[in-house]
């Protein structure tokens, strides 16, 4: 079932509503994830409270990807339906006066009513940063880079990553959610090493199930330090349940960096496709 705010903007009195896209970023260190939770500080809670303060009415956000506690974002996208007379161009500046320093709305843009931050998305892009230098992570990057105590093989991790690409049931790497599929198309999983001895994984998919990126990274780190063979992560794709042998990598190394959307005329069609729960081609 979809909620009201997942649907196109609907009239509200004489003025009506306009759908607004918010491009935003946050340092996830002090947040208990995106989703609003009672008695917890969350990104959604802080943003919805700020928007409701500006417009003097309760407002609800729909987000492209609900990040976990401690996970960061530099390219998160959300949408909200606002009164049609709203000053959309000035919204980011108004919010900057209210929001805490660890979350910022970079841009607010009026979009077609068919735009849905979650269901219209074509793919999400994440980055995961790991430092395997003997001294650990640079102190200035300690909040978005994990320190790994043993040397990692870029070649082994890259080969293991290549074997995971494509559409599979990633249940071995996911925490199940009621009614949600674990079939995903992993479109990119590439590692690179910088001059600072930081390995960065660039990870892209049409969508991710809960804890999928961090579980994939955890499995690949086991390969990189030589505890598991190169083909081990891909062998887990034959599993029918979450694998207890996969250690989930720490959240603070993960950042949502971008979300891709189709052209305006294709928004509604993309949302319709995404809402259809995918089943395995083997079923």
Order of helices and strands: EHEEHEEEHEEEHHEH
**Model regions low in confidence, pLDDT < 50 over at least 5 residues:** 1-5, 278-283
Biggest sheet record: 10 strands, mixed
> What name goes with the CATH superfamily of the largest domain?
Pseudouridine synthase I, catalytic domain, C-terminal subdomain
Distance between the ends: 24 Å
* Category by helix and strand content: alpha+beta
In CATH's first tier, which class of the largest domain applies? Alpha Beta
Remind me, CATH topology of the largest domain? Alpha-Beta Plaits
Helix percent reads: 10-25%
Report the mean per-residue pLDDT as an integer.
Answer: 92
User: DSSP helix count?
Assistant: 6
Portion in strands: 25-35%
Shape: globular
Q: What Rg, in angstroms, do the CA atoms define?
A: 20 Å
Number of domains: 2
- The tally of strands reads 10
CATH architecture of the largest domain: 2-Layer Sandwich
Domain Pseudouridine synthase I TruA alpha/beta: 26-119, 160-262
Subunit structure: Homodimer.
Catalytic activity: uridine(38/39/40) in tRNA = pseudouridine(38/39/40) in tRNA
Family: Belongs to the tRNA pseudouridine synthase TruA family.
